[in-house]
Each structure stands twice: as structure tokens, then as C-alpha cells.
Amino acid sequence: MSDELIFASEKIPDATPTVALRPWKILIVDDDEEVHSITKLALRNFTFDSRPRMFLHAYSGKEGLSSLAEHPDVAVCLLDVVMETEHAGLETASAIRSVLKNSFVRIVLRTGQPGQAPEETIIAEYDINDYKEKTELTRGKLHTLLYSCLRSYRDIIALDRSRTGLERILASSTQLQQKTYLKDFAKGILEQISAVIAPEEDTFYAHGHGIAAFEQAGELKVIAGTGEFSDKEQHSAIDILPSECAHILLDMTPGFKSQMTSAGFICLYRSSDNHAGILFLRDFQTRNELEGHLLHMFCHNALTAFENISLRTLLEESQREIVYMLGDAVEHRSQDTGFHLRRVSEISYLLAKKCGLPTEQASNIREAAPLHDLGKIAIPDAILNKPAKLDGPEWEIMKTHAEIGYQMLAVSDKPLLQLGAEIARDHHERWDGTGYPAGKKGTQISLPGRIAAVADVFDALCSRRVYKSAWEIKQVEEYFQLQRGLHFDPQLVDLLFENLAEFILIQQQFADKT
Ligand code: C2E
Ligand code: SIN
Ligand code: SIN
Ligand code: SIN
Ligand code: FE
Q1: Of 314, 313, 426, which is closest to residue 368 (Cα–Cα)?
Q2: Mean pLDDT lowest for which of 70-84, 120-134, 237-251?
Q3: What pLDDT does 92 receive?
Q4: How far is residue 203's CA from residue 383's CA, in Å, rounded to a whole number?
Q5: Average pLDDT for residues 115-129, to the nearest whole number?
Q6: Do residues 22 and 59 touch, judged by C-beta distance below 8 A?
Q7: Hey, CA dihedral for 126, 91, 88, 69, is it positive or negative?
Q8: pTM: predicted TM-score of the whole model, two decimal places
């Protein structure tokens, strides 16, 4: 057919060294066997992006369609027009888009009868990507054709991958937050940039070096680092970033900025209330405009989501801090220096987990537990710190601390403080109904309240108080055995005994200095 075909048929070994890379699938649909063999021959040593090609063969429009249904990852379909019918090729092209809903595969129509159908009309109507005459089956022209088809196929796949990546990012940003969540999210962004933008065979990005940083208290702190930056978490980003990137941080105008510097890619998102998040990827280079655009889009979305999570995390952290500050105020007044609150928190958490509560609920109980004695703020010093047994009137005043703590906290609409209110109100109720302030019985007492009661007394007995000395663990065990079903929820006592070693460990871990 052409001189170039003879040139292309010189002996070249069939096995290529890049066999590990996935080949580009090329589907030839033609009722003429010769077209198949000529095309194969012309493209026998073709590669694109270091990946070889692989042929699939079909001999009618119908066969072509079922082959594509079976191989949705076909990159290019070379499609004959006239096969079992005059318009078999056109109908196949139409079915690929509308029935298979495959908008990725590049379709090239090939006709043996030039001028048979007007080219412009067909390209527009049938959503095909090129229209060639079979006289253009030479090696050179086929290579050029395939290059341009594969290039656009690759870019379409990349776009689609980016969309999937963004969906993943957005989905992960709505997941429930845990303590380590912001860090996980930041790490996820860094890792996903490679999944979104770089082809999978590009190993550099898979082991990329990058940081995600967020401004906390006026300082840009590294939240997550990958590669050489993996040990830089909590460092100041300014100290770590190459000097080429420094100036972008000085730009205080709100919005998203990104820049490809000689040191790598950096982008910054600054909100109108002057919070900032940055992503830096060392030595990262995009290879074309499309990749640059994808990277920009991805980072913009990621940083916006990052910012939302960061703000939420900051809020939670400040709530947690306030809780401990409030709790501490009580501890300081009551002269019982030490880690009582911390131990009650940890014991409550462990009990909650052993009850089978989900981690998030158990964590909430841990964070709210330090508020159980907040009401003691209202108890006079002379009573609170009396180094002896309280008399009747003193005891009546002391008992008000549960209700007072509840009243103080219940005005808040913050879930954590509301849980604190519940715990403050219920932590001195007893299973048998003899507790205070309300004399509730059994499961009328909230579960967090019952948990806090066990944790509070367990720790109080193990510790020294101004009015009592610390008990031996044997005595504590006896007390709980005795009070099972009286003072305490019997199931919680069972869990305490089943896991006693773990509870004692907490006691030792956060032991008071004497
Ligand atoms: P706390 O010292 O944190 O004790 C918490 C709970 O641990 C007590 O709640 C009680 O259930 C248990 N507990 C602590 N020490 C002992 C003990 O020696 N024997 C027994 N059986 N249980 C003990 P409770 O009784 O409702 O007391 C609430 C708070 O009232 C105590 O918190 C403490 O601040 C104060 N309080 C109770 N009794 C006295 C006392 O005799 N003198 C003084 N100064 N304060 C007391
Ligand atoms: C190839 O993909 O090069 C061989 C397979 C075939 O042509 O059917
Ligand atoms: C293929 O069919 O293997 C090519 C799709 C791609 O990974 O870009
Ligand atoms: C494909 O395999 O068809 C495209 C997805 C990819 O290249 O990862
Ligand atoms: Fe109390």
C-alpha cells in the first residue's frame, strides 16, 4: 500500500522492555482483514508516554460494540464506516456514546469511499474525534493520528481522575472529626495530589516531599509532612520553606494564590479573617497546561476544605482548653493538687469504651468529665478544705455542688458543655436511689453520669484527700464489690473488675507527685 509500510516491517523484537507498563488499548473495527494487519504492522513499535499499545479486533459494528462493552478502557477506536450495513460504523459510534455511555474513548472513523459522507456533519453529529480516509493508513500518518488521540485520551482520563480526587477530598472533609483528624486530612491532601495529577508510573510523586501548614495563633505551623518533611510536624513553616517561597507568605490579601518556583510548587489560601493554609511540594513540576490547571483547582479546593476543618478543630481545641481551665480552677481551690481530673477523664473513657460506646462518644465523655465538680467553685473554703468530717449543715452545702455545676453548664448550647452539665448533675446519684441531688434510680441516671460516678469514687478512694488518706487497692476492690448494685451500676462494676489491671495502670500513669 505504501513505501512506509515496507520500512516499518524490518525485524524488531516483539517483546518490549516496558512490558510492565499497562498498554494503551486500540480497538480496530473493520470487516476487511487486511486493514487489521496493515494497521498492526504500521504501529508495531508504537509507544506513547513510554507505554506500548495493544490491539483488539472486531469485524463488524456489532462486534465492535460488544468489544468496547467488555473493555471500557479502550483508548482509541479505529472504526470502519461501511460494514454489515452502509452506516454500521456511524451507528456503532452513536451507540458507544449513548448506550455504553463511554465518552472517554477517542473514535476515528475510517472510510474507503472518500466524500461518502460529509466530514463536518459527521464529526459534529456522531461525537467522533476524527475522520480519515483509508488511504491515510500509512505508518507516518497513523503514528501522528494515534499520538494526538492518545494525548487527548490521557488528558480526559486525567481530568476525570481529578474530578474523582476532588470528590474524595470533599467527601473526606465531611467525615466526622477526631483528634488527629486535621493531620490525617492534611496528609491525605499531600498523598492525593499524586493520585490526582501524576500518572501512576511516576514514582517521584508517589514518594513526594511536601508539607501542609495552617496558621495557628499567628504562626504557620506544619500540620503534616511527607517524604523528607515527615519529621517536621509542628515546626514553623517559615523555617522550613525554601527562600524562593517566602514572598508568597507575605501577601496578606485574601484569596488563593499558587506559584511554580524553582524550588517547587507552593500555594496559599488566605481567608478574609486572615487565616492561612499552605501546601508546598518540593521539586514538583507540571508538564503541561492541563496539569497546571488541575493542580491549581485541586489545591484550591483542598485548602478551602482544609480551612473549614482547621477552624472547626481550633474551636474544639479552645472548647477543650476552657473545660480544663474550669476544672483546674476547682482543683486549685480544693488543695487536692495533682492529676485527679486527668485520671477521672481517662478512667471514664476506658469505662465508656468497655461499655461498647463508639470512640467518638467515649471521647466526648473523656472531654466533659473534668467538669463533674465544677459546682465546687461555689462551696466556701472552710467547708471544701476542712481537714475533718463535715457536720450536717456543712454536708448539706457540700451536696449542692452537683446541682450548681449543672446550672452553670446547662445554659450553654455547646454539646460538650451540655454533656458536662449532665455529668455534674448525675455523678453523685446512686444506683439504688439513695444518692443526690435528685435521688434517681438505676437507668434514670444518665450513662455518662453512672460512668463518672465509678471513675470519681475509684480515684477518690485511691487518692489522699484533705479529709482522708489514700486506700489500698484491696480496700477499694472490697468497697466496689460491696457497693455493686447499691452505689454503682452493677454492669460497670463488673467491667471495672474484668479490666482492673488497665484501670490501675491509668492510676499509676497519672500518679500525683508526693
Ligand atoms: P471527693 O473527695 O472528690 O470524693 C468523691 C466521692 O468519693 C465521694 O462523694 C464519695 O462517694 C467517695 N469517697 C471519697 N472519700 C471517701 C471515703 O473516705 N469513704 C467512702 N466510702 N467514700 C469516699 P461524696 O461523698 O458525695 O462527697 C462529695 C465531695 O464532698 C467529696 O469529693 C469531697 O470534696 C466532699 N467531702 C465528702 N466528705 C467529706 C469530709 O468528710 N470532709 C471534707 N472536707 N470534704 C468531704
Ligand atoms: C498486539 O497487540 O500487538 C498483538 C495483539 C493483536 O494484534 O491482536
Ligand atoms: C489503558 O487503557 O490502559 C489506558 C488508560 C490510562 O491509564 O490512561
Ligand atoms: C483507565 O485505566 O482506564 C484510566 C484510569 C487510570 O489511568 O488510572
Ligand atoms: Fe463531686
Answers
A1: 426
A2: 120-134
A3: 96
A4: 69
A5: 73
A6: no
A7: positive
A8: 0.51
* Residue 348 or residue 511, greater confidence: 348
Residue with cell 492518545: 150
Q: Is 73 near ligand 3, meaning CB less than 6 Å away?
A: yes
CB 103 within 8 A of CB 160: no
Pocket of ligand 4 contains residue 159 by CB under 6 Å: no
Q: Where are the alpha helices (DSSP H) in 175-288?
A: 181-197, 203-206, 237-240, 243-250
How long, in residues, is the chain?
Answer: 514
Given this model, what pLDDT does residue 361 score?
A: 96
Collapse the DSSP code of 442 into the 3-class scheme (helix H, G, I; strand E, B; otherwise coil) and give the result.
helix
pLDDT of residue 214: 84
Nine-digit cell string for 394 = 456543712
Closest residue by Cα to atom 12, ligand 1, is 457
Q: Which amino acid is at 44?
A: R
- What gap in Å lies between CA 422 and CA 438, rounded to an integer? 13
pLDDT at 473: 95
> What confidence tens digit (pLDDT) does each residue in 338-381 have?
688 889 999 999 999 999 999 999 999 999 999 999 888 888 88
Phi-psi region of 127 (alpha: psi -120 to 50; beta: other; left: phi over 0): left
Question: Strand pairing of 51-58 and 24-29?
Answer: parallel
Atom index in ligand 1 nearest the CA of residue 428 equals 26
Domains and CATH numbers, the chain: 24-156 (3.40.50.2300), 175-314 (3.30.450), 332-509 (1.10.3210.10)
Q: Which of 25, 376, 440, 468 is catalytic?
A: 376
Q: Does ligand 3 lie within 6 Å of residue 106's CB atom? A: no
Structural contact between residues 302 and 281, judged by C-beta atoms closer than 8 angstroms: no
Look at residue 13 and tell me whether its pLDDT is greater than 60: no
C-alpha cell at 293: 490547571
Burial class (CB in 10 A: 0-12, 13-18, 19+), 338: middle
Q: Where are the alpha helices (DSSP H) in 334-358?
A: 340-354
Residue 175 has a pLDDT of 46
Phi-psi region of 322 (alpha: psi -120 to 50; beta: other; left: phi over 0): alpha
Q: Which residue has the cell 476515528?
A: 108
Could you say which DSSP state residue 134 is in? G
